[in-house]
Amino acid sequence: MPARPELRLDRRALARLAGPLLCLGVFGPPPAPPPEEARLGGIRHSLGRDRSAISHHYDVGNDFHRVLLGPSLVYSCAYFPEPPATLEQAQEAKLDLVCRKLDLRPGMRLVDVGCGWGSLALHAAARYGSSVTGVTISAAQAELATRRVAEAGLSELVEIRLQDYREVVDGPFDAIASIGMAEHVGLAQLPRYAARLHVLLRPSDRLLHHAIARGPAAGPDRPDPGSFRTRYVFPDGELQPLATHVRILEDAGFEVADVEALRRHYALTCRAWVSNVEHRWDEAVRLSSPGRARVWRLYLAGSALAFEGHRVGVNQVLAIQPGSSGHDRLPLTRPDWSRRAVEGAHEPSDGAA
Q1: If the chain, 353 residues long, is cut into consecutive pieces of 10 residues, what is the mean pLDDT of each piece?
Q2: What are the start and end residues of every segment in region (Disordered) (predicted)?
Q3: Domain boundaries, the chain
Q4: Using CA atoms, how far apart are residues 129 and 15, in angstroms rounded to an integer?
């Protein structure tokens, strides 16, 4: 077998090769991570680290989120009473569905844990006359939510706080809403979360716990620090099966009164959000960055496919805090909570969202 010829490169050939290799980052220190990547420090799910994670996810820019979410500024699963309903009608229906499940009435105290841009607080105050405390650890959300409350003339009924739910001490409340917030808590902290809400709720009153869940065969979420979702969109976020949420609520002393699955609704919601971004793409890029806009479009398109493919779901769990007498206001048969939501989906918002 003939010997292979020996490859020899002179200095000029090596220099010609070195330029492209340097551009590709083969030599020298690794490239800096892109600005869209989350970089968190500290103990996982500590107050400080949670604030950093929430800031990465929500403080992209309020104007960017207006493009993404539409005028409702609701970043959680909508409720489509009929397929022709618009996203705005479906979000209005979802807000009303939550209020009906909580049986809100004038003068009742509601705490909205993870209140976002204040849409539920505005709806509960304007439509039901409830006194609402909204808490969020996103500075951008708190600033805009406070402004929306003032513009709606509801400052006497609604207070928005830049505060962690673990720091709320002025209970008990007549109702608690936790909409799309438990995903940020983490499995290790969920028992503490449920116990805290149990303390904040009056006996015989209601909690509406609305959370994304992994598919029934998926088991607990094991966050992968190298995954796209964790690195770029949802740092420290964890999704648990519905059974885990129910068990932890019951362990904290709640009685689960009703569970409603909204998986197909969230698929429709995510597709509507993707459509919003694509129809206003140049504006979305201008308000964030080309990389950030691409990250969110990809994330939401992938989320729509995950909901459609049964890999994840979303559920509303209505739980009560049993009173000393065992009495509560729940009727003996399951109410048609959707009836008012369907009607409300086609009504003006009266300053809500």
Answers
A1: 60 66 60 59 65 63 91 96 89 96 96 96 97 94 96 98 93 95 89 96 94 74 63 72 95 96 96 96 92 90 93 95 67 80 47 37
A2: 325-353
A3: 47-323
A4: 75
